[in-house]
Amino acid sequence: QLQLVESGGGLVQPGGSLRLSCAASRFTLDYYAIGWFRQAPGKEREGVSCISDSGSSTYYADAVKGRFTISRDSAKNTVYLQMNSLKPEDTAVYYCAAEHEPLSVQAVCKLGGDYWGQGTQVTVSS
Length: 126
Fold this sequence. Notes:
Structural class: mainly beta
Distance between the termini: 40 Å
Oligomer: single chain
Helix content: under 10%
Largest sheet: 7 strands, mixed
Radius of gyration: 13 Å
Number of strands: 11
Order of helices and strands: EEEEEEEEEHEE
Shape: globular
C-alpha cells in the first residue's frame, strides 16, 4: 500500500516561507495525481493545490494563488508545496494525498485521494 509522509511544517512569522514535502516509499508516485489539503481547527478540509501525474497540470485554490507553488520531483519521488507570503489564516494541518484515477486536478482537489499522509502542522504567527 502506498504510504505518504509529509514534512517541512513548523512555526513561521507572517510573510515568511515554508516548503512542505510529500514523500513516498516502496511505490513510485509517477502514476498518481497528488494534492495538498489543509484543515484548520473547527473548519472543513480544503484542497489547497493539486498536480497531475505528469506534472503538466496544476490547480490552486483562490486563497493561495500567487503565493503557493506545487511541484514534483520524480527522481526523489517527492511532491513539494512551496509556500510564500504566509498569512495567519494559512495556519492548519497540511496533508498530502495521492489519487490513481485519471481525474482532473480540480476534481482531485475537491474529492481528495485514495491515500493520505499523517499531516504536518503549519503555524503562522508573530
